[in-house]
Amino acid sequence: QVQLQESGPGLVKPSETLSLTCTVSAGYINNYYWSWIRQPPGQGLEWIGYVSSSGSTNYNPSLKSRVTILIDTAKNQFSLILNSVTAADTAVYYCTRDIWEYIRSSRGWAYNGMDVWGQGTTVTVSS
Amino acid sequence: EIVLTQSPDTLSLSPGERVTLSCRASQSVGSSFLTWYQQKPGQAPRLLIYGASSRATGIPDRFSGSGSGTDFTLTISRLEPEDFGVYYCQHYVNSLYTFGQGTKLESK
Question: What is the mean pLDDT of residues A56-67?
């Protein structure tokens, strides 16, 4: 059973860099896409970006200039780097596994959802 | 950019009742890329429905999804006490994921 665990500092100063790591249970990181999601206090979910096991990435346009997501398959980890943080970046940060299925009959891909989530880690931006 | 609008924002119901939650897209979207999640306080979201109508592993059959084009629905046939929480729809298009703002399902 695959499990995800976020780790990183719980407090980051304004203008500094937020760095989080998601550790994936051994043997489960290849052939999937992996996302970071965040949730500000009392608010809804915001997708930050994803990385594939081959290293391709895509980011939310609203955060693209400040975000980098990296993957290290040897360590079964992927990471989030968010630069120049402000109080608006205070949130619970989740990592997820994204399931994609190739449909041979239509020769296309179907999205089967974010089926595994980490427990979330709270990051506060404050001086 | 496609916007997902969920309605209502809050719904107050009692156990045993039937629940219908709406997710409307600002333009037509592929049902293969529409998912629903449930989130309880202090917990991570849980995948309920993918492909607009397929239940995820372990999800009770009282949960069902339907819809196409711009209008999608999550139905709970008979509300159980453990079903209260916030429900989000999500879509994927043009390499971007988008969430609706959520519907809070609370106990009356």
Answer: 96
